[in-house]
Design the sequence.
């Protein structure tokens, strides 16, 4: 009986906790709507499309292909990223480069982002620092799956 | 002849007004639920819906929801029983919406030499009518569970039925003490009686005469609305509930029924336990304070005050029910049965006996 009574008291206390949250947040929200500045912000969350959290410098976001000074991709089509990719989402087709220093360049470089798991292994594997994941773009939603396949034009930036 | 015409017209206007009131409250209760739950959880809540860039704290959100729900595909699974599947949401909706007929919104309004009761129909069994219609509403849930031909929907419907038998008895018994005190089932006379004073200063509201009855009725009525902590028919985390196979506006009707039940329960709590449209010490010609002061008001102001008081009380109980819904986790199946049969029913019996003893003294 005493135990049941204690449960009952705890149940009542629970409603006071939520009630307190409601009351304090309501009060400070009302002050904000009325244009009164207070030190404490009631229930203020990040209002996403307008405000954004700063992305950490080591965050792995959308890939980009680096370019040489003449605008061609740095990639030498060594296939290391293709080999290491765990989700097998990179497709590279090599072609011969007239410059003997470079020897190969990617005729096609395709990343299927609908399969990519953003592990960053391709960035780790690349000997030429040709691929990076530092664009800061994390909003990759598309209406069709075909739009998720990124080729050279979309990756070089 | 013209007299009957006027009477019919007045009844028609009253029906339209009451239904519009109920549906508008339902619409904005969804908004209130979103905002209140957000504030409880330290969020801001729905504030994006806008018309031409004007947001005003998300007040357009219910319309956006309604438009979304109307334009969604109304999918009827091939394995369902089509006729019953379509009927079920309408049955639920009808039995809840019809209870608004017996709710008194205010006292009489005098226009010229005509007296209009601010209540659609002044039943002499108004209270019984509301209780009967609210419990008939469970048929919509059982039928939807059966007609969906889906095991989870069926479990939801069966749970709804089991829930009804565990709270409905306590819901009825808790009101018997109240009926003994205000010897009437007519809601308008129950409210009129609550305008009298106890000890010369305290209004004779049900909460002061029947505190135990109020607690039992509140708990049973929370089970009546089928929302957390008593959302067994729905149980959205384990079985999706009786509306698993519904989509579009039919699902929307079930959701609206939930919110309408919240409003009906709030109006019932207000009418039975918090004096309905009574404002403390407000008589038909103005305020008569127990310490001797008087403040005379015109008829229209008094009626407006009474209707406003009714709305404020209903709003408070809607707020309280949403607070409860966002505070407590769901009861287990057997816990609800225990709660209904072993706690609420004995308490309401104790209430009846106690009321009887005090009344005979």
Sequence:
């Amino acid at each position: 009986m005493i135990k049941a009574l204690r449960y009952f008291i705890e149940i009542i206390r629970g409603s006071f906790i939520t009630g307190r949250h409601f009351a304090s947040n309501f009060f400070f929200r009302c002050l904000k709507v009325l244009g009164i500045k207070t030190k404490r912000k009631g229930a203020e969350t990040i209002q996403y499309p307008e405000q954004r959290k700063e992305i950490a410098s080591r965050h792995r976001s959308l890939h980009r292909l680096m370019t040489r000074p003449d605008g061609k991709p740095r990639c030498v089509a060594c296939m290391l990223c293709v080999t290491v990719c765990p989700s097998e989402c990179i497709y590279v087709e090599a072609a011969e480069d007239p410059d003997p220093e470079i020897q190969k360049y990617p005729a096609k470089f395709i990343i299927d982002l609908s399969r990519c798991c953003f592990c960053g292994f391709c960035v780790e594997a690349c000997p030429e620092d040709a691929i990076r994941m530092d664009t800061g773009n994390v909003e990759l939603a598309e209406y069709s799956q075909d739009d998720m396949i990124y080729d050279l034009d979309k990756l070089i930036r | 002849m013209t007299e009957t015409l006027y009477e019919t017209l007045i009844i028609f206007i009253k029906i339209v007004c009451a239904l519009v009131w109920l549906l508008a409250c339902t619409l904005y209760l969804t908004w209130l639920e979103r905002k209140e739950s957000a504030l409880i959880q330290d969020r801001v809540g729905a504030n994006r819906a806008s018309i031409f860039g004007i947001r005003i704290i998300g007040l357009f959100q219910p319309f956006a929801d309604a438009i979304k729900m109307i334009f969604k595909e109304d999918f009827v699974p091939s394995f369902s029983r089509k006729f019953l599947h379509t009927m079920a949401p309408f049955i639920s909706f009808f039995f809840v919406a019809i209870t608004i007929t017996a709710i008194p919104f205010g006292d009489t309004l005098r226009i010229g030499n005509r007296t209009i009761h601010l209540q659609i129909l002044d039943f002499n069994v108004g209270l019984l009518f509301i209780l009967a219609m609210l419990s008939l509403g469970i048929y919509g849930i059982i039928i939807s569970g059966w007609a969906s031909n889906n095991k989870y929907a069926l479990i939801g419907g069966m749970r709804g039925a089991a829930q009804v038998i565990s709270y409905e008895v306590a819901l009825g018994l808790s009101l018997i003490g109240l009926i003994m005190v205000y010897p009437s089932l007519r809601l308008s006379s129950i409210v009129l009686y609550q305008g009298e004073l106890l000890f010369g200063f305290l209004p004779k509201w049900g909460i002061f005469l029947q505190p135990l009855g109020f607690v039992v009725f509140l708990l049973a009525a929370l089970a009546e609305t089928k929302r957390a902590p008593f959302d067994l028919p729905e149980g959205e985390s384990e079985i999706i509930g009786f509306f698993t196979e519904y989509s579009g506006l039919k699902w929307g009707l079930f959701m609206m029924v939930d919110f309408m039940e919240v409003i009906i329960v709030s109006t019932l709590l207000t009418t039975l336990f918090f004096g309905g449209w009574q404002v403390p010490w407000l008589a038909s010609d103005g305020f008569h304070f127990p310490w001797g002061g008087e403040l005379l008001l015109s008829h229209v102001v008094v009626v407006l005050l009474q209707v406003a008081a009714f709305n404020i009380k209903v709003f408070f109980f809607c707020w309280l029910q949403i607070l409860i819904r966002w505070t407590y986790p769901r009861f287990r199946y057997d816990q609800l049965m225990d709660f209904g049969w072993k706690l609420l029913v004995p308490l309401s019996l104790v209430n009846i006996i106690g009321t009887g003893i005090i009344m005979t003294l």
